[in-house]
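Listing 4. Sequential folding, example run.
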Amino acid sequence: MRHETPEPLTPSLPLGAPLVRREGREKVTGTARYAAEHTPPGCAYAWPVPATIARGRITAVDTRDALALPGVLAVLTHENAPRLGATDDATLALFQEDRVPHRGWYVALAVADTLETARDAAEAVRISYAADDHDVLLTADHPGLYVPDEVFGGPGARERGDFDAAFAAAPTTVDVTYTMSPLHNHPMEPHAATAQWTDGHLTVHDASQGATRVCEDLAALFKLGTDDITVVSEHVGGGFGSKGTPRPQVVLAAMAARYTGRPVKLALPRRQLAAVVGHRTPTIQRVRLGAGPDGVLTALGHESLSHTSTLAEFVEQAAIPARIMYTSPNSSTVHRVVALDVPTPSWMRAPGEAPGMYALESALDELAVALGLDPVELRVRNDTDTEPDTGRPFSSRHLVECLRRGAERFGWGARDPRPAVRREGDLLLGTGVASATYPTFVSASTAQAHAAPDGGYRIRVNATDIGTGARTVLTQIAAAALGAPEDRVHVDIGSSDLPPAVLAGGSMGTASWGWAVHKACTALLDRLRDHEGSLPAEGLTVTRDTREETAEPSPYAQHAFGAVFAEVQVDTCTGEVRTRRLLGQYAAGRILNSRTARSQFIGGMTMGLGMALTEGSEIDPAFGDFTACDLATYHVPACADVPAIEAYWLDEEDPHLNPMGSKGIGEIGIVGTAAALGNAVWHATGVRLRELPLTPDKILTALA
C-alpha cells in the first residue's frame, strides 16, 4: 500500500486560537471526578503489602492478626487470590506465585470497610521469606551487560561508515561519559482504581493514560471479552508515562472486588510508587565526537548503558537521537542493558530523547569549546536535510531557524564565550544552549461524529486527557472540520465504551485522535450535505477509523525540533544553582491551541529543570530499594525554582503529517533543557560536571 498525504483541513474556523479548557471550571471547582473519587454504595478499601526483600521467595504467610481486626473483609495473597490469565506484562501477574523479583513487589492486599482499617490490616500481615543474594547496581563493567536486538525506534546497535578510523583521524575529538541517576514520574494524582462487578460485568475507574489498553489487558487477565469490561479514565491528574500501561492498582482492585463481592477502591501510597509504576532507568552514556577544523562532524559514537528488571526487558533508547540529529557519515550507536533485581523501568516523559539528548548536547558543547566555536554555530554547521540513519528526507526540519530565532530572543549574541568571568558578588553567572528533538508518531484510532436535530454535534472517541487539554483541542479540530462554532460541539472521551483509540503518550495522542475526529466529521458533513429535509429525531451518526492511513510508514522522517537557552547563577558559598531564565524555541508543526501548547512547552521545560538540578534517586545496594520514595526526599521543582520561562514556536507547515499538520508537543519541552542548564553551569564556573542532578554537594566539590 503506498503512502498518501492527507488532505488539509478546510480553514473554516481558526485552529491555534487560545480556546479556554472545556473542563476548566469543573477542575477548579472540584466537580471533576478522578479515579479515587468514585465511591459506589458499599465500597470497600484496599491497602497493599510490599515485599521487604530484594530477591527470593515467600515461605509463609500469616494473616490471622489482620483478619481478626473488626471490619477486615479479606487479605489476598498468592495462596488465595484468583488465578489470572496469561499476560505479556509480567508486572501485572500479581499474587500468582511465591517469587519476589524485587523489593517493593506486592505480596498481599488487605481489604476492609474503611481505609484506616485496611492500612492497619496490611501492617498486621506477617510474611516470611527465603532471601537470595541480589544485585541492583548498574556499573560500566557489569558482566551481565548485553546488546538487545531491538529498542524502541530501531536496532540495539547500528554502525555506519568506519567510526573507529574516522574518530582516530579526526583533528579534534571529545570522549566523555555522562551519568544519570534513576528518575521517578510522581504525578500529582496517585495511581488509583475503583472496581465493581455487576452481573459479571466489570466497571473500573482507573488513573490511566489509555482506557482501551487497560480494558484489553483486564480482559486477558480475567478471561473476559472486552464487551464485559468498562474502563473509565475521564479525568487523569498527570502520568508522564507512568500511567501509559496498566499498573497494579487496577488489577488488584478488580481482583479484590471479585473476591469480596463488593466494590473496592485502591489508591497506591506515594511511598510505594517508585517500586511498582516504573521509573526512568539510570544511564551511563559515553559520547565520542570527532570533527574537522570547520566543526563538521566526521565521527559520532554514542553508547548508552542502562538497567532493566528480571521480570521484563525495558531499554532506555538513549542512543537513538544520535542517529537522526546531525550529519555523521561515520557513526556507532549502541545500547547495552543488564537485568538486575530492580523494579521494571518504564516510560517517563520523552523516554530515550530526554537522557540521550542530555549526553549528546553536553558533548557537543564540549566539542564547541575544544574547537573555539560558538555552540549555536557548531549546531548550525552540522544541520542535515536527510535523516542520517535512514537517508529519508525530513517532512520538515527547522532546527536552524529555532537556533537562530531563539538566540535572537535570548540575546545570545552579547554573550562573552569565556567561562567564569561573569560575577555578582558570590554568584557566578553563565548561559547555555542545547537542541531538542522528538519523533512524530501517529497510531490508528476510531472516532464517531453525530449531528443532532437541534444543530449540536457530539464527538465520541476514547482519547484521554492527562492535563494536556485534549477535550479542548479535539473540540477545535471538530469545529474546524464541521464549520461550526465550538460551543455547538461536545466531545466525549475517557471510556473504553467509546470508539477505541490510542493512549495519551509518545506525543501522538492529538495527532492520532484528531485525524480520526477530522475524518469522521468530514464524512458527517458529506452526509449532511446529501441529506434532504429535517434530520430524524435520532440525528445522523458516522464512524470512521484511520487504520488504512496509518498502516504504512511514511517515506519521510518526521520529528519536532527546538532549541533551549538557559541562564543560571551558581552560588560559590552554598553550591546552589538557580535558574534565572529559560527560553525554548520550537518547530512542532501547526499549533492547535496556543494556550494549551504554551502550557505543554513550559511544563516540559520545568520537568527538564528538575532533571538537571533537583530530581534524583539512588538504589540502596544493601536493601535493594529506592531511597527517595516521597516528595520530601525526591525534589520536584516548585514555582520559585522557575522565575522566568518563555516558550515560542515557528508557524511551521508540514503537509505530510495529518490533516491538522500537527506534531506532538507534550515531550519535546523536556528534551534539551537539562543539557542547556548543564552547559550554562560550565559557562558560569569553568568546571564541567557530567553527573545529574547538579546538586550543591557536586558543585562545591567541583569548585574546590
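-- end of first protein; second protein begins --
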Amino acid sequence: MSPSRTERLLNLLIALLNTRYGLHRSDLRETVYRDVAGNDVSFGRMFERDKTDLRNFGFDVETVTDLGWSEDDPATTRYRIGKESNRLPDVELSPGEWTVILLASQLWERAALGTAAANALRKLQASSRLTDVELPLGVQPRIKPAGKAFDDLVAAMHAQHPVSFSYLAGSTGKEEQRTVEPWGLGSRFGQWYLAGYDRTRQAPRHFRLSRLTSAITVLDKERYSPPADFNIRGELDRLPELPLRTAEVDVRAGRLLGLRQRALPGDLGPSGTPDAGYDRLSVQYRDVEVLAEELASYGPDATAVTPDDLVTAVRRRLRAAADFCAAPIPVIDFPNQPRPGSVRTRTSEDQLKRMLQLVPFLVHNQGLHIQEVAERFGVTRKELEGDLQILICSGLPEGYPDDLLDIQWEDDHVYITQDLDLKRPVRFTVEEACALLTGLETLNGLPELAEGGALESVTLKLMAAAGEEGLRAGMLAGPEVGPADSATLDVVRQAIESRSQLRLVYLSPLRDRVSERNVDPLRLYSLDNTWYFEAYCHSAQGLRNFRLDRVQELHPNGNAASTRLQPNEGFPAKLFTPNDDDTTVTVQLTRRGAGLAEDYYAERTSPLPDGGLLAEIRFGNTAWLPMFVAQHGGAVRILEPRELADQSRAWVAAALARYGG
C-alpha cells in the first residue's frame, strides 16, 4: 500500500493516543483526513477501515459518548486509545538471559517463524537495552521446519482456519483427501506432526508432514475453535514410536558405504537371490517414507525388495520424479530482483509494524549508526531513511513543531528527542510469542543452558510479558536438539576453545568413501538434532562442514590450529557457502517443494502460475543433483544446464527400470 496510507494510519494512531477526552469524527476529518477524504460516505468507509487496521495491530480504539447519547450520533461520539493499550510491559534482562534470548530468536532456520522471532527480539531491545553478550562456543542450534507446508499450517492455525491436503494414510497405504482443523504442530522421533480434528474421520487425528502428498490449501472463509488449553507437546508425548522393522535392499557392489555400515550383521535369510553385481542387505527402519526417500535418492544403486509398502513408496517417488522431468518446460524468465528475502515487501502493514518497533528502539538505543539500525531491522539504508522521513512528518493534528516526532541523524548516527507516546513497543503477536517461547523450551535439551537459571527465569518473564498470546505457545513444539554423541561434540568444543588441530576419519556419502584429514575446528552448530562443525580442512584447503554422526574417529593430533580464519558469515551458520567456481543451476519447484529455494539459498526466483517457482541455485558439487531430484519425488527438477537435466532424467529412469518400468 502507498506510503500516504502508512502516514495517515500513524497520524491517526498518534492523535488517538494523545487525546484525553477523545476526538470527534469531524475533528479527525479536518486534520488527519484533510487531504484524502472525499464525501461523507467515502470518508466514513475509510475511517472504519483505519479503525479496523489499528485494532488488528492490537490497539483498543475506545468509543466515548456524551451522557444519554447513542454511538450512532457522530456529533456526540468521540474516539481515543488508552496510553497503555497494547503496550509490551518492560522486560529487564540480565546478560545471561540476553544470551538465551538471542539463541532462541535465531533457532528457526527459515520460514515465517524466523521473521516473527526477529520482530520479537527487536521489541525486547526496544523495552530493555541490549547488553553486549558473547554467544557460547558450540551452542548454535537451529530448527528446520518441514518446508512450505509448515508455514501454511502455522498461519492457518493462528488464524483458526481449517486446511485441506492429500495424505498418504499409513494404515491403508492409499492417498486420501483430508480436511483438518489444525490444533498444533510438533516434532517427535525426527518427524513433524500435525494434530487436529479430522473432519473426514470426525475425530482427532495425528498427521505426519512427511506423508503429505500435496500443498496445503487454507479454507480462509471458515473458522473453528481449538480445545481450551491444548498443548501439542503433551499430545505428542503420548504418541508411541513406530515399531522397528527390517527391509531387504539390493545394493550395487562396491557402492553406498554408509548404508552398508547400517546393515544388520550376518545372514538373516533374505528371500531370493539378488541380480548379478548387487548384494542383498537387511536394514532396520521405523518410518517407511523416510527410508523410501533415502532409497529413491540412490537411484539404480539401491532397490527395495521387501516389504511391499516400502517398494510401493520408492516406486511412487521415482514415478512422480520421472513424470515431472517429462512435463513441458515453462518459459525461463527471472525478473531483475535480488535474492529472496533480502528486501522486505513495502506494504502499509509491514511498514507501520516496523515503525512501531523503530521509534521505541531508537528511544532506548540513542546514537546508533544508521546502517546498524537498518541491519537490525532487515532493510536497506534507503528503506530506513524512507521510514524516518515519514516519521519526522508525523505528529499531532494541527500541532506545533514540538508536536511532531523529532528524529535526527547527524553524522549518520540516529537520535530521537520527541516520541509522542510511542516509546514503548506493542505487545507480542501470537506468532512472535510462539516463536520465542517454543525456542526457549527447545533449548531445554542443551544441558549447558538448562542447568543455569537464566533459561527458566527468562521464560517466566516472557510468559508474563506475552499475556494471552503466550498461552497459545502450546500449539508449537520444537525437536530435541541435544546431540546424540555428546563425547564427540565435547572433543570438538575443547579443540575450538584451545585452538587445537584435530585428526578426522570421516564418511562422505557424496563421494561414497572414508577419508582421513587434519582440520582446524571453528564452531559447532545444529539443524534439529543433527550436529555439524565448521572447520578449515587442510586436505581441501578451505572451509568445510562436517556432520558429527558421520565422524568415525576424532582426536587431537598434537598440533595447534595453523590458521586464524574466522567462521564463515558470522551467526547463524549456513550449510552452504557460495564459491566463485560454483555451478548455477536452474530448477523448477512445485508448490509443495517451493521451500527448497530457501533451504538452498536461491540466488533468484520467479513465481509460476501453478504456485510453483523457478529458482537459480549455486552448487559447488553437481554430481549429487540426480539424487536430489529422485529424493524429492516430483517436487523438483533441473532445467539448466541441459546436461544435468539429462543426467537426472536418466538416473530416475534407470532406477524405475529396476522396479520393472
